[in-house]
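The protein record filed here.
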Amino acid sequence: MDKDPLNSVESDVDVQPEVANTENVQSIESQLSSEKPVAESQNQAQPQQVTVNVQNPQGPKSSGLSIAGMVLGIVGLFCFGIPSILGFIFGIVGMNKDKQAGASAGLAITGIVTGAIGLVGWLIWLVAVGAAMLSS
């Protein structure tokens, strides 16, 4: 029977896992501190260590009123009336809260603009319906 070459490796070296203890760590540290780095012995410049501070790219979150103002403003574009009024009001209140918290007021501005467009559309519709009722 042939021996499997992968499993038949014989070695004279006794391999034992070494457990790190404080004596081993201290002896390694002393050996490392006593040696001069190769770059210093050859008068070469040492690379500088660069520290990079990673910050969270997201700022404070928008308030719930800003989100509600945007949603109601968009709904008000299709269903004139109360959603437009609420979207406009929630947008204004949400923008004030976002400015105090240092958050972006983009959603609140969207609520204000879409709410205002919905209000203008609602007023045009009321005038058109009123004029049609008066002419008949």
